């Protein structure tokens, strides 16, 4: 006889924290992405690691991570890491100090994100600031090299206003500081916890979670109760929909369909127990 297993609860629901109705398992695809984002962060800020140094030299060729084109013959892992760049961009910002590390076009050092994103690839030519420039290179005689005030391009007007309201970088302010995390929760170091929380699937907290996973719960009972709350108990009416050749009627009263609500709430036989 062919043995067929059906999942009671979808994997993505199981991977939610217990407080959000899951079993608290980690979804490894998401976890792997969070780990790969750490490598992107290290490529951005630099580290003593041989792997980072080799890739910075040979793959990035000292260009900005965001600007690097991924070659079709690049390794699978490199393509996967580079595919996470849009996510990394949302999680990275640079606190501008001396302007010697932040890329003028590619890093998020203003509140509007990387200038290349809103000015466009014509930006470097229009503004006369090379695509490879660091922010300090946008300073001429102690002032921002601004787009012309009469410019009709809305993006350049926007950049002009942004630069006017931004302090110019100064060596006395120390080194530019890259930060990681969602806006309002950024820290100068990579945090696996913050990254995982940002990446993982979330759900609203069900009212029953605390009743199921209370301190001192019996695992077997808690699991059954958890399954019941999700309405995924293998009651007969459900087993029949899975293709099992059995009666869908209640095993206690044998009169109505055996569903969770019937067993726990409406069955006359179980009411008497
Ligand atoms: Zn019944």
Salient structural properties:
273 residues, two-stranded antiparallel sheet, 14 helices, elongated, binds zinc ion, Ribonuclease H protein, membrane, transmembrane helix
Description:
This protein is mainly α and 273 residues long. The protein has helices at residues 11-14, 28-45, 50-58, 76-83, 85-91, 115-119, 123-127, 154-164, 192-199, 209-212, 219-229, 236-241, 260-266, 268-272, and strands at 92-95, 139-140, 143-144, 177-180. Among the domains are: 97-175, no CATH class; 233-273, no CATH class. It is 40% helix and 4% strand. Strands 1-4 form a two-stranded antiparallel ribbon. A two-stranded antiparallel ribbon has the order 2-3. Helix 2 (28-45) crosses helix 9 (192-199). The structure holds zinc ion (ZN). Residues 250, 252-253, 256, 262, 267, 269 line the site of zinc ion.
At a glance:
It comes from Cardamine amara subsp. amara. The protein is mainly alpha-helical and about 270 residues long.
Report the span from N to C terminus.
37 Å
Low-confidence stretches: none
Strands ordered across the widest β-sheet: 1-4
Mind telling me the C-alpha Rg?
28 Å
Strand content: under 5%
Gross morphology is elongated
- The topology string of helices and strands comes to HHHHHEHHEEHEHHHHHH
Number of strands: 4
Overall average pLDDT: 90
Q: Which compounds are bound in this model?
A: zinc ion
* Structural classification: mainly alpha
Helix content: 25-40%
Question: What does the largest sheet look like?
Answer: 2 strands, antiparallel
Total number of helical segments?
14
């Amino acid at each position: 006889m062919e043995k067929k297993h059906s999942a009671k609860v979808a994997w993505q629901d199981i991977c939610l924290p217990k407080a959000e109705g899951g079993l608290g398992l980690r979804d490894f695809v998401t976890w792997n992405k969070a780990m790969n984002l750490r490598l992107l962060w290290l490529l951005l800020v630099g580290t003593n690691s041989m792997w980072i140094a080799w890739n910075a030299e040979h793959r990035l060729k000292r260009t900005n991570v965001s600007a690097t084109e991924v070659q079709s013959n690049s390794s699978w892992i490199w393509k996967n890491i580079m595919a996470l760049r849009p996510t990394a961009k949302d999680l990275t910002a640079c606190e501008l100090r001396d302007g010697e590390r932040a890329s003028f076009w590619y890093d998020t050092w203003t509140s509007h994100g990387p200038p290349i994103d809103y000015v466009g690839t014509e930006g470097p030519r229009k503004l006369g600031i090379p695509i490879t420039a660091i922010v300090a290179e946008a300073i001429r005689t102690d002032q921002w090299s601004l787009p012309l005030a009469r410019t009709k391009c809305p993006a350049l007007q926007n950049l002009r206003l942004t630069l006017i309201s931004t302090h110019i970088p100064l060596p006395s302010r120390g080194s530019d500081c890259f930060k990681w995390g969602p806006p309002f929760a950024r820290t100068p170091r990579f945090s696996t916890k913050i990254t995982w929380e940002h990446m993982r699937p979330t759900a609203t907290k069900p009212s029953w979670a605390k009743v199921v996973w209370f301190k001192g719960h019996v695992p077997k009972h808690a699991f059954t109760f958890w399954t019941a709350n999700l309405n995924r108990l293998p009651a007969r009416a459900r087993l029949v929909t899975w293709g099992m050749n059995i009666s869908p009627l209640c095993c206690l009263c044998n009169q109505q369909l055996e569903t969770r609500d019937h067993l726990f709430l409406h069955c006359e036989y179980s009411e008497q127990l």
